Every structure is written in C-alpha cells, then in structure tokens.
Amino acid sequence: MSHKKRTKGTKIMVSLALALEFASIPQSPTKTKKLKLLTDYSSTSPYPNFHHPTANEARSIHALLASHSSGGAPIYELPSADSNSAKTCGQVPNVLDSLIGTVLSQNTSSANSSAAKRSLDAMFGTGEAGFEKMACAKREVLVDAIRHGGLANRKAKIIQDILSTVKEKHGRFDLQHLASSGVTDEQAMQELVSLRGVGPKTAACVLSFCMGRQAFAVDTHVFRLSKLLGWVPKSADRVGAQAHLELRIPPELKYGLHVMMVRHGRICKGCKNGGKGECLLRTWLKNNSKQEEHVTRWTDLVYSFGIIPAPSPVQELSREIN
After folding, report:
1. Which residues form the catalytic set?
2. Tens digit of pLDDT for each residue in 7-66?
3. Taking the model in full, what pTM does it have?
4. pLDDT category of residue 163 using cuts at 50, 70 and 90
5. Running DSSP on this structure, what letter comes out for residue 308?
6. Backbone dihedral region for residue 89 (phi beyond 0: left; psi -120 to 50: alpha; all else: beta)
7. For the chain, what percent of residues have pLDDT higher than 90?
8. Alpha helices (H) in the chain, listed in sequence order
9. 88: which residues sit within 8 A by CB, 6+ positions away?
10. Which of 10, 14, 174, 277 is an S-S bond match for 270, by CB 3.0 to 4.6 Å?
C-alpha cells in the first residue's frame, strides 16, 4: 500500500472516530443551538439574498488596509510557545492554551486579558500540569487569578467547564488532535463550539491563530466595520454576520483581513459611531462604492418590509455565546 493511500485511510479513520465520539455525547440545549447554527449555515448564508461582500469587494478592502499598514498585509506565522495566548488572540501552539487565552480576551482590552493570562500562568503553571491545577482549584482562587481581565466569575466557570469536559471526553487535558490534518475545519469548529461558553467567534480565533486554518472571526471591531462597509444587513447580529462572512470572504484573505480590520477598528476614531476625523474606509466608500451602498440600502429595505424573508440566527444565542 502506498504512503498516499495510508495517509488517506488514516484521515478517514480519524474523522470517523471523531464523528462517533461526538454523536455519543449528550448535548445541552445551548450546545444543540450552536451546533444547529453551524450545520444550517455551513454552506448557505443566513442572509442568502444578501450578496455582499463580493470577492472583489473583499480584495479591495484588503488591499486598501494593506496599503496603510506598516509592512503591508500581515502573513500568518507559526505560533510561539512563549506567546501570551490572551494577547495574541490564541496564537500559541497548544490548542487548549489557545482556547483559554481566547476566552480571557472576551469582552475586555488586550492589556487586561494579557495581565489576566500572566497571572493565571503564574498561579497554576502551564501545560497539562497547569490545566489540572486549574481544573481542581477552588473557583474563587481561579477568579482571583484572572480578576484583571474582567468578568472573572463567568470566565473562571467557563475555563473549568472546558477543562472538565476535555478531560472527561479525551482522558487528558489535551486538544491537540484538532490540529491534525485528519480533522477538517468543520469538525474542529464543531468540537470547539460544543464546549460550554465557546461560540463561533472564539472557535474561529483558535482555528485561525493557533492552527493556521482559514477561518474568519467576527469580533466587535470586525462586526462594526462590516456594517459600515455594507457587508451584512443592518439587521444582522454578530453570530449571523460571522456565518455570512465565513462564506463570502475568500479563504486566502481571511487571516490578514481579520487582523487589519481589528487593528483599524481599534485605532480609527473616524469610523466609530459619532466619531470625528478621517477614516480611510469612509473615504473609500464615498469615492468608490456609491452603487454598492444603493444595493445594500435596497436589500435592507426589502428585508425590513418582509418582501424577502431574512432568516436570522436565534437572537438570544448572540447574547449567550461569542
């Protein structure tokens, strides 16, 4: 048997084992909602009649932001074990560490989440030994360790729930199998969002920054800029926006475009609601996107009057998950 055939057979066996293992696990109502969302919109947008961004529109904004970025568009680099996973959106080689760091980065600044991760590592250590100590620690001890990052009670519970589930499912504190070539992006995403407190955005960050997969995470900045650019309907929620953009953004642009949109959203005052000053995206829209703006407005109008049904992800899900 050739090496190629053996490799293909190994991938099939890994995928089958994951599918069987996943199917045997009882699912909570929230988990079922999240997985249904992924299944329903894995190949069809929640806004199927909304045709933005086109590939050319995405490339234009990618090129525009790259032209105003030092060194041009960012290129994915292999993660370093010395990185702070909260500061780098999960860009570390250990998948579980990446996930914990990304959870800490939810709803706070990079400075706060980085401080929380440093404190967490100092208190419990890193690697499987550190994960075990976190899992077994009293909740208030974990809360105190990550207090710098905000929402410490909620995040401590999420972290311990994740660790408990991973250990129960895999027999150890390890998710490295998700980085295997035998695991598809969809399978990795499904296992990550099946964990309590982990939504599509958090999972996409782990896929993109830790595993180097082609995933497009929609955080607060990306969501706001996507609405500004007319890439999602005005009625879209963040979960629906991610499902839509995951299908609309060309794969080769996803990493760089996400990084540049987040960077621009953080530093540009002109594109924020009520902000004053120049914004290169607003200028680009004014000079080059008159036709696209008209199409976006018309599509939103059609949705608002119900002429075309606008399927929307469950609204409360957006508040439950990230």
Report:
1. 201
2. 444 343 334 333 333 333 344 556 666 777 778 888 899 999 999 999 999 999 999 999
3. 0.77
4. very high
5. S
6. left
7. 61
8. 3-23, 29-40, 55-67, 95-104, 110-124, 127-136, 139-145, 152-170, 185-193, 200-205, 220-228, 238-248, 254-267, 280-288, 290-304, 315-320
9. 79, 101, 209
10. 277
